[in-house]
């Protein structure tokens, strides 16, 4: 730590060592087109009432869909789903139909639910917040599927994925 050091680099070094579970968000444009991406930032932010915050990069196609969406599905990625994390983190919906490369089904409100992720929930978008290069989506859970407990796909593994878009 240096007093005159680069705070961005120091901060990135610090939080880059955190190892949290990864999630995949899926939603739809009003036209019905599906969208989904690996989430870099997501957390429960209230117990009563229950609330969850996800943050999507403005450069991401899923963010464009979520800005217009009424609800978003959030999937906890199991440790065994490295290829799914690679698909949703390393490909861009601008060029690739990610859903053509994985198993999924329509869920609540027509949201795509990923078969490989047994633990997921759907949240109605309560609020959207400008968070700089990301938009925060505050979600009210309306449906949850707590499946079989599984080890999570952790951030340290996701760091190796070449992102489909820059933040």
CATH superfamily label: Electron Transport, Fmn-binding Protein, Chain A
Proportion in β-strands: 35-45%
Indicate the radius of gyration in whole angstroms. 16 Å
Strand order of the largest sheet: 2-1-5-8-9-4-3
- Structural class by SSE content: alpha+beta
Biggest sheet architecture: 7 strands, antiparallel
Helix content: 10-25%
SSE order: HEEEEHEHEEEEH
Mean pLDDT: 89
Poorly predicted segments = none
Q: Output the number of helix runs.
A: 4
The CATH architecture name reads Roll
Query: In total, how many domains does the architecture comprise?
Result: 1
Based on CA inertia axes, which overall geometry fits?
A: globular
Chart the SSEs and their pairings.
Layout lengths: L6 H9 L7 E6 L5 E6 L1 E6 L4 E7 L3 H8 L2 E6 L5 H9 L13 E3 L5 E3 L4 E12 L3 E12 L9 H4 L9
Antiparallel strand pairs: 1-2, 1-5, 3-4, 4-9, 5-8, 6-7, 8-9
Describe it.
By secondary structure, the chain is α+β, with helices and mostly antiparallel strands. The protein has one domain: Electron Transport, Fmn-binding Protein, Chain A (Pnp Oxidase, Chain A). 18% of the residues lie in helices and 37% in strands. It is built from four helices and nine strands, in the order αββββαβαββββα. The strands form two sheets. The chain has a seven-stranded antiparallel β-sheet. The mean pLDDT is 89.
Write a short abstract of this structure.
The chain is of the alpha+beta class and 167 residues long. It contains four helices and nine strands.
Question: What brief labels describe this structure?
Answer:
7-stranded antiparallel β-sheet, 4 helices, Pnp Oxidase, Chain A, alpha+beta, 167 residues
């Amino acid at each position: 730590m240096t007093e005159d050091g680069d705070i961005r680099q120091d901060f990135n070094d610090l939080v880059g060592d955190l190892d949290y579970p990864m999630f995949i968000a899926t939603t739809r444009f009003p036209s019905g087109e599906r969208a989904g991406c690996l989430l870099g930032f997501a957390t429960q932010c209230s117990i009563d009432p229950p609330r969850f915050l996800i943050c999507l990069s403005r450069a991401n196609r899923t963010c464009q869909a979520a800005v217009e969406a009424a609800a978003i599905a959030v999937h906890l990625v199991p440790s065994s789903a490295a290829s799914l994390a690679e698909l949703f983190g390393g490909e861009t919906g601008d060029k690739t139909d990610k859903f053509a490369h994985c198993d999924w089904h329509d869920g609540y409100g027509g949201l795509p639910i990923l078969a490989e992720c047994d633990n997921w929930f759907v949240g109605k978008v309560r609020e959207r917040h400008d968070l700089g290069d990301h938009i925060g989506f505050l979600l009210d859970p309306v449906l949850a599927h707590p499946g079989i407990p599984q080890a999570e796909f952790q951030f340290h593994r996701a760091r190796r994925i070449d992102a489909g878009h820059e933040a």
